Amino acid sequence: MFADACQKAMKYTRPVAVSTRTYDGQLNTDVGAMIVLNEEGWVITAGHIFDSFVKFQTDIKKMEEIKSINASRVQNPHSPSNEIKMDKSLITNHSFWWGWDGVRINNVVVNRQVDIAIGRLENFNSDWIEEYPVFADPEHMRLGTIVCRGGYPFISIKPEFIEDKKAFRIPSIPHDRCFYPIEGIYSHYESKGKSADGSCIMNYIETSSPGLKGQSGGPIFDRDGRIYGMQVMTEHRPMGFHPAAELDGQKYIENQFMNIGVGIHVSTIFELLNSRNIRYQMEGDESGFRIIG
């Protein structure tokens, strides 16, 4: 049912790899997704993709402050050290990989309350994208529609850190072979009112299947490939069932939850893109789609 739609989604969806190194030398790379909107290289992704970068900026300032304080202290050679120790979890190095080598992102705006980030890829070649996304008309979106989401879950990456270059090295992430779709039903629409900064109405769609880690920032689309929303989180709703179970002779109560996928509704995406005059395609009644912006 979604084979053709997935082929379309794979053309404009790309992985985002976020690599970090902490003070104790631990390396980590997480993977999310982004949607490339147009030939100018504008993209959208989940706002929380940037959380580690915000922490990195804060941690750099903390380390500088600690070094400054330690340098100004006078140490009595006969007394215990009064040096402030660094927290091992402080991020010392950070890097994004935006789908292709040598590509960076600029003009980034992150709205963490909505959980969306908008930016423009630098050194982007429009020939890399064979087909750009078409968003659904909100007036045509109906509850009960079977939809699919895609992204890059189940990818385990062991990054390397090149000390002399202060850079990370990660293995290639083939976007077509690693793209992982999962279906569900468009089951609920929710509006959370105006955002605190007044930039948009925060509208969301919920699906009967969960989003997987690595699908954040990826598209939620119908069988024709039209985007209904962008995946941002999974909520765990208590079902009110508490069956008893037993393990190794010990009885315990299990709390049952339903995992709900949550995506940003296209109406909110449109509002934010329109405010920045960013071009995108939306389905039309006669021409198939129309270009906005």
What's this, in brief?
By secondary structure, this protein is α+β, with helices and mostly antiparallel strands. The chain contains 4 helices and 19 strands.
| Rg value | 22 Å
Number of strands: 19
Q: How much helix, percentage-wise, in residues?
A: 10-25%
Largest sheet: 6 strands, antiparallel
Mean pLDDT over the residues: 93
* Helical/strand content category: alpha+beta
Distance between the termini: 32 Å
Write a concise keyword list for the protein shown above.
single chain, 293 residues, alpha+beta, six-stranded antiparallel β-sheet, six-stranded antiparallel β-barrel, 19 strands, 42% strand, globular
What does this protein structure show overall?
This protein is an alpha+beta fold. Helices cover 15% and strands 42% of the residues. The strands form five sheets. The protein has a six-stranded antiparallel beta sheet. A six-stranded antiparallel barrel has the order 8-11-12-17-14-13. A three-stranded mixed beta sheet has the order 7-18-19, covered by helices on one side. Strand 15 (244-247) and strand 16 (250-253) form a beta hairpin. The longest helix has 22 residues, at 51-72.
Record the SSE blueprint.
Layout: H1 3-12, E1 13-22, E2 27-36, E3 42-46, H2 51-72, E4 91-98, E5 104-111, E6 116-122, E7 134-135, E8 146-151, E9 160-162, E10 167-169, H3 175-178, E11 180-194, E12 201-207, E13 219-221, E14 227-238, E15 244-247, E16 250-253, E17 257-265, H4 266-274, E18 280-283, E19 289-292
Parallel strand pairs: 7-18
Antiparallel strand pairs: 1-2, 1-4, 2-3, 3-6, 5-6, 8-11, 8-13, 9-10, 11-12, 12-17, 13-14, 14-17, 15-16, 18-19
